[in-house]
């Protein structure tokens, strides 16, 4: 009898633990929310078309200021490019939670809210902020901060709220912004190395400019390209190893930081697995594993684990992300003794399309030709990071399963 009582208590405790364990599923889906309201169908369509929907869904705290079809028709009559439309709509996505109650209780009656437009780095000065003012009498005004207090839009109603995760509200009209509506060049027309240099990847950009690898990057820009750009500190620390590589080895290492398809941040978080690179060439795989733990995305080679630390651009067909370490392929660097038996990499997602292998105009370097070509030693501390990340990821995902099995075992003791 006492054994059964103890088992019953244990079952309850483990069941509660199972419920409290963290889950990595998205808490909201903006397109599903707006699909229930036909008057926002055009706004909803462009959230998908511009890939803003995926960015909104990846955020834990967000407010979407939706505009009805009539308001969107006024915007579309300006015949803006899809990239400019994305900037305009991103000004309507606030990086904070504003439900109907909070809007009428703003401290001091007014607040400046950062927007997704400001987060892209494309908004000069304070142009990426929205002024929200409680006008009393049940009215709340909205206006771009660049309009110096003018509030052209007003709060209409709350569409749907999931406190304090996402609030979808309707405002009366689109927010006019000269900065957001300024002509935006297509990503493929941008100078990629200039963009990298201006945002903390100057050393990588300058190194790329001196290499035939730059041409490989440019040739893939129109069809789809994702670049993982090491920050300046990481690249500076790596340069002694880089200088010891052969010319082909240097080119392969730089191309190892590019993927010949467009991968948005949302797809990197959902489609984990093995990913080919611009350096992939026949027997020389030059691949790495993408893995995420919540909002943290890591890139794992057999030598090093790097984390994505920022986004320079994420607009089809080009995405450029900053990473905290230089990616080191096993084809060029040998792992330390501790890394001889690394943790197994996760299998590719069956639904995730593998990047196509594009033909290159140079051969991948041989494993060892001369002493100068011999693979360099991989840093053991990077492997320790990789092992720690693997263990923590396993713990997070396996916890619910273990708790569930133990709960069932205790349950059968009661029979």
TrEMBL record:
<keyword id="KW-1003">Cell membrane</keyword>
<dbReference type="GO" id="GO:0098552">
    <property type="term" value="C:side of membrane"/>
</dbReference>
<dbReference type="InterPro" id="IPR000782">
    <property type="entry name" value="FAS1_domain"/>
</dbReference>
<keyword id="KW-0472">Membrane</keyword>
<feature type="signal peptide">
    <location>
        <begin position="1"/>
        <end position="27"/>
    </location>
</feature>
<comment type="function">
    <text>May be a cell surface adhesion protein.</text>
</comment>
<keyword id="KW-0325">Glycoprotein</keyword>
<feature type="domain" description="FAS1">
    <location>
        <begin position="27"/>
        <end position="175"/>
    </location>
</feature>
<keyword id="KW-0336">GPI-anchor</keyword>
<dbReference type="Pfam" id="PF02469">
    <property type="entry name" value="Fasciclin"/>
</dbReference>
<dbReference type="InterPro" id="IPR033254">
    <property type="entry name" value="Plant_FLA"/>
</dbReference>
<feature type="region of interest" description="Disordered">
    <location>
        <begin position="338"/>
        <end position="392"/>
    </location>
</feature>
<protein>
    <recommendedName>
        <fullName>FAS1 domain-containing protein</fullName>
    </recommendedName>
</protein>
<comment type="similarity">
    <text>Belongs to the fasciclin-like AGP family.</text>
</comment>
<feature type="compositionally biased region" description="Low complexity">
    <location>
        <begin position="365"/>
        <end position="378"/>
    </location>
</feature>
<dbReference type="GO" id="GO:0005886">
    <property type="term" value="C:plasma membrane"/>
</dbReference>
<keyword id="KW-0654">Proteoglycan</keyword>
<feature type="compositionally biased region" description="Acidic residues">
    <location>
        <begin position="379"/>
        <end position="388"/>
    </location>
</feature>
<feature type="domain" description="FAS1">
    <location>
        <begin position="188"/>
        <end position="327"/>
    </location>
</feature>
<keyword id="KW-0677">Repeat</keyword>
<keyword id="KW-0732">Signal</keyword>
<keyword id="KW-0449">Lipoprotein</keyword>
<dbReference type="InterPro" id="IPR036378">
    <property type="entry name" value="FAS1_dom_sf"/>
</dbReference>
């Amino acid at each position: 009898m006492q054994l059964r009582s103890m088992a019953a208590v244990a079952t309850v405790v483990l069941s509660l633990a199972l419920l409290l364990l963290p889950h990595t599923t998205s808490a909201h889906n903006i397109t599903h929310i707006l699909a229930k309201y036909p008057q926002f169908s055009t706004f909803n369509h462009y959230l998908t078309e511009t890939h803003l929907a995926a960015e909104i869904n990846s955020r834990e705290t967000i407010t979407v200021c939706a505009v009805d079809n009539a308001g969107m028709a006024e915007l579309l009559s300006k015949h803006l490019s899809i990239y400019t439309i994305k900037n305009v709509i991103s000004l309507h996505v606030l990086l904070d939670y504003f439900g109907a109650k909070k809007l009428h209780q703003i401290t001091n009656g007014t607040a400046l809210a950062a927007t997704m437009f400001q987060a892209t780095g494309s908004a000069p000065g304070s142009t990426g902020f929205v002024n929200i003012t409680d006008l009393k009498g049940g009215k709340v005004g909205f206006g771009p901060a660049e309009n110096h207090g003018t509030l052209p839009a007003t709060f209409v109603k709350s569409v749907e709220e999931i406190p304090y995760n996402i609030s979808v509200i309707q405002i009366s009209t689109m927010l006019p912004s000269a900065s957001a509506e300024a002509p935006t060049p297509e990503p493929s027309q941008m100078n990629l190395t200039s963009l990298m240099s201006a945002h903390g990847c100057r050393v990588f950009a300058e190194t790329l400019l001196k290499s035939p690898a730059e041409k490989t990057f440019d040739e893939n820009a129109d069809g789809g390209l994702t670049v993982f750009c090491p920050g300046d500190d990481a690249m500076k620390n790596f340069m002694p190893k880089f200088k010891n590589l052969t010319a082909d080895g240097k080119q392969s290492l730089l191309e190892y930081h590019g993927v010949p398809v467009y991968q948005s941040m949302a797809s990197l978080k959902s489609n984990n697995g093995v990913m080919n690179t611009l350096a992939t060439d026949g027997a020389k795989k030059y691949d790495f594993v993408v893995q995420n733990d919540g909002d943290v995305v890591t890139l794992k080679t057999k030598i090093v684990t790097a984390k994505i630390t920022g986004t320079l651009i994420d607009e089809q067909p080009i995405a450029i992300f900053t990473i905290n370490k230089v990616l080191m392929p096993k084809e060029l660097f040998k792992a330390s003794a501790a890394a001889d038996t690394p943790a197994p990499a996760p299998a590719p997602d069956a639904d995730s399309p593998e990047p196509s292998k594009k033909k290159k105009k140079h051969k991948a370097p041989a494993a060892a030709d001369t002493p100068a070509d011999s693979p360099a030693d991989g840093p053991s501390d990077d492997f320790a990071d990789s092992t720690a990340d693997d263990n923590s990821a396993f713990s997070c995902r396996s916890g619910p399963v273990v708790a569930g099995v133990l709960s069932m075992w205790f349950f059968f003791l009661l029979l």
